[in-house]
Each structure stands twice: as C-alpha cells, then as structure tokens.
Amino acid sequence: MTCAVLPREFARARWSGYRPGMWLRLVALVCLLALAAGCPKKRHTLVPSLPTTGDAQARDRFVEARARFLRDGGQADEFRAIATEYAGDPIAPFALLFAGVASQQSGDPVAAAASLDRLLATADLEPGLRTRGELYLGLARGMLGEHDRALPLLARAEGAIENDGERGAWIAASAHAHGASATPLAALSWIDRWWPIASPAERAFLRGRLDQLVAGATAEEAAASWRTLEGDGPSVAVLGWRVAADRDASGDADGARAARDRARPVRKAIGLAGGDRDPAPSTARPGVIGAVVPQSAKQARVGDQLARGMQVGARSLGDAAPIIHIEDGEGAAAADAVAALAGHDVVAILGPTDGAAVDAAARRAAELSVPLLSFNPRAEERAAGGTYVFHMMHSAEARARALARRAATLGVKRFAVLRPETGYGTAVGKAFAVEVAAAGGAIVIEIGYPADARSFAAIVKKLDGNWQAVFIPDQADRLELIAPALAAAGMIARPAGTRKATGGRPIVLLSTAEGASDGLVREAARYLEGGLLAPGWFPGALDEAGLEFERLYFEATGKSPTAVDAYAYDAVRLVAGLGGGNRGELARRLAAADVAGVTGVLRFDAAHRRADDGVIYTVEIDDGTVAVKPLP
Fold this sequence. Notes:
Elements: H1 6-16, H2 23-35, H3 56-72, H4 76-85, H5 92-105, H6 109-120, H7 127-143, H8 147-156, H9 164-179, H10 187-194, H11 200-215, H12 219-228, H13 234-249, H14 253-270, E1 288-292, H15 300-315, E2 323-327, H16 333-342, E3 348-350, H17 355-368, E4 372-374, E5 389-391, H18 396-409, E6 414-420, H19 423-438, E7 442-449, H20 457-460, E8 469-472, H21 476-488, E9 491-493, E10 505-511, H22 518-524, E11 532-533, H23 544-557, H24 563-578, H25 583-591, E12 595-597, E13 600-602, E14 617-622, E15 625-630
Parallel strand pairs: 1-2, 1-3, 3-4, 4-5, 6-7, 6-8, 8-10, 9-10, 10-11
Antiparallel strand pairs: 11-14, 12-13, 14-15
Helix pairs in contact: 1-2, 2-5, 2-7, 3-4, 4-5, 5-6, 5-7, 6-7, 7-8, 7-9, 8-9, 9-10, 11-13, 12-13, 13-14, 13-25, 15-23, 15-24, 16-17, 18-19, 21-22
C-alpha cells in the first residue's frame, strides 16, 4: 500500500466506522497511515530512536518484523512474541506498541488493548512511547465501546499526533466517544472540528448525528450548550434552530429570532432547510390538524386504522370537531409531507408510524416549530425530539415494565418468563426482567419457544421452580393456546394472593397480549382469571370511556376498533382539547398534559414519550360471567 492510497482509504474508513461492525477499519488504517515509514513526508514524532543497548538479536528481529509490517501489514503475533521472549529488554516496549498497532490493523481491538495495557504498565517507560501508547489505546477502547475509558486517554494523547491523517482519526474518535458519553452535547465542538476535513459522505453522516444529539437533549441542556458554542460550524446550524424553537415555545420571540439569525447562514452553507427563510409561523388555524398516514399496500392496514381512529376522534367532539388534512408519507418522504401540512397552517401533525418516517418527520417538524405526535410503536428507539415532537404509543417494553410494577404492588416477587424466540420476545422479556429486579423481585426461570409453535403442552412443563407469576410477551392469539396448556399442566390462573386452586396451584398470568380482542375472551377467558394484560387497549372491556369510543367507532365504520385506532382517537382529542391558534403554546401544553384518554392518562416524560403506564386490564369471572376490566 502506498502513501497516495492511504488518505483516500482513511476517509472512507472514518465514515464506515460509524456503521455497526465497521469502526475497526478506522483505527487499522490510521495505524498504517501513522507508521508507514515509506512515506516521504517528514513528520514530528515523540517516539525515541530504537535502543542501541540490549540484545542485538532482539533488535534485529524487531527491525525485520517492522519492515514486513510496514510493507505488508500483519506481524502482530511476531511483535507480541518478541515482547514476551525478550521481556525486560529495551526493545520490548517498542514491540508492544507495534503489536497494539498491528492488532488494530487486523481488526482485533481486544488484542490491541492487551498489548497496549502491557506497554503502559512498563516501569520507567519513555514519555514518547507512553503518549503514543495512550493514543492508540484510546482508539482501541473506542472501538470496544468503552468510551468512559477512551476519553481520558484521547484527551492526553494530542501531543502524540504525527500527521493530518492521524489527527483526523483522533478527532473522529473523540467525537464518537463524547457523543456516547453522559454528556453527549460535548461532541458538538468535535464534530465542528471534524467537518472541514470530512468527505461528502462523512458530512451527510455528521448532519444526521447532529440531529440525533440535539434532539436528544433537554431544553436546558441545549440552552447551556448554545451559550458556550463557538465558531460557525455545523453545530451552530442544528443547535441554533433547536434553541430557537425552544425559545419560541417559551414565548421568547426576540431570543428565538437571535438564535435563528446566527444559525441561518450556516444552515444555508451546509444545505439545511431554513437557510434562506424563517420557519413556518407559530400561529395556525384553530381546529385544523394534519396527519401523515402511510398509504402503500405494505402499510395499508395500519394506515386505515389510523385514519379511522382520527376520524372517529374528530366526530366525537361534535360541533368542535377539527378538520384533518391527511398526507401520504413513508420513509424520508415523511419530511416533505410535514412541510406540506405546515404550509396549510395546521396546529399540529399526527403520525407517521415507521421508524425512518418518524425520524425524518421529527427533524422537519422541529425545524418548522410544529408539534408532531408520532405513532411509532417503539418510541424508545427514536431520539428524543426536543420541544415539538411527542410519541403517543406505549411500546411493548413500556407495557411490560408497567406489568412488572403492577405485579410488585400486588406482592408478587418471583416470576417465570415464557417468551417466543424472536427479537420482540427477547427485547420485551429483557425489559420486564430489568423492571422486576428494580422492584426487588427475581426471574426464577426463563423458557423460550419457537416463533411458529402451536402446541405448548411439552413447553410449559419446563416451567419448574418456585415462582408466583408467569410473563408471556406475545400475541393474543398465541396466548389463547398457552393459557389452556398452563392449566392442563396444573398452573391455574387466579388473582394475586389466591391460596388454592382446584386442579393445581394458583399462578398470576401476565401478558402484553398484542392484538387482544373479544376472541381472546371467547376462546380462553376461563384460563385467564385474575390475569394482568397490557395490550395498549382492549376492545370490549368494561370501561365507560372505552365503550363510548367503541360505540362511536362501530357507528362510523361497522367494525370493532383496535389499539392503533384507540391511540389515534386519543391523539385527535388531545390536540383538539389543548390546542389553540399557537403552535408554541400547544407544545407547552402537551409537555404538561395530564388528560384522561382511552389508552391511559395521557402524560409525557422529559423525552416526550408516554410517561403513564397506560391501561392494565384484568379478567374477572363471577358465576360463569366473564368481564374484562381496567385496573384503577
């Protein structure tokens, strides 16, 4: 590999490094760039000359290995062997440094860190070798995701940087580590330093990363960072627009204008919206709501549910019913749909649903200072959206945590988990287990079953141990099969605190019961007595507000509603109930909301995800009559 190739490869490596599994290429190529002795460009180095004392054979062997490494790469094992066989020799620290560098080149940060740790533990180590070792150990720790350990190493290592390529790697690693730290906005100044040397692909990545970091900050954190941010780097463009939106929402129009005036020329220079104009006005027509609803064949079902739920929500308000403008928008196109709706002076926008569309729509809504309420079912995976972005739906993980907390209040401490061997089952089961531990309980046993399992007699017999309740994160139609199998095996669902059960021992059954409907009650009610279910919303439950929603929905559509319909219904009523003609005021009211809905008491946390537990239902049986009721 020649010097002419290295800078181009290095630029690609720094960009690729931020994709999962590709960060290793960054440090590997940086090592070649930093140490390639064949490069004619003179460089400053802190590394001392090779020792002239010690074992001559050890020195000759190292020189030969170094020449092969600089020519062809590799040699990590040979460098380690030299350091081990000639431990205590003056050449050993040099061999350890090169062993770490060569290991990084080969994509082995564990081995790199091991060699560099040995180097830095050497007594009376030359300062130049120590500082170089800290630089590469910092890069290795970053590769391993050990950002807290990487940051102090990188901070001390600037003096060891020998050329422009290595400085770029150090800046990129520092930006990455700060962004993953407890103070992620500290990465902004590093991103600004990276920007001038970044390739076009890297700059596209950095714009997206800035959006994530800024959206994830609280208003107070954003304001504090804005006060200390210097220069005219891309961070000014993104953070300034966020701070302006926050100031608008707090009624500080002059402060918002000042932030935009500073950010606008930078936004224009880097190609971001708003560089040549102010955002849409914060005022809007009262009673006009926008919606971004997917309409492709792939998402037609959920799109129909959202549209129907919104329409019924509007009709439920009678003469105060809002007008709803609906735009199609999936993926990146959702941002254009948001912009189009904002141009119609809507007071807020509802939707979209899928992750990519929500992320794109959230960024544009924040730019335009228009409240957006998404329907993404995995809100924890979305970046916090700042002042104007809210997430309406309880994720399955959030509902699992709510079940764990409710069971704890009933005195249940020991749990079994019976889950499908799917990504959903793993993630939701883990969320439940973490909350159980936080409440002082324990998971006694966890059993997985194939995603396509239809027979559970043999599976449930594996649930041994002294547990009180079993958590099943799965679809309601699968619960219809599991609940009878549990009963047949002598595990009888009963309310918490039940001492005895005919035919076996009493247990408490907990489930997210996705897609629950009257079919679950019809097919498995007698096996669910006392169970706690959290599907988001349960049609047919004896709940006054929920039954009114069902009545209105059936009158309008001739169908029974789903949980998706219920969240859409709540969203329309929430916005209509809180809204006025000012988007900033609506955003403030949403952040402070405490409004009863059919999916729970609507409240949002600091990241604008649902803070309430939603509705947890239980099954009661009285003289053979089955009733599903929300718990108070």
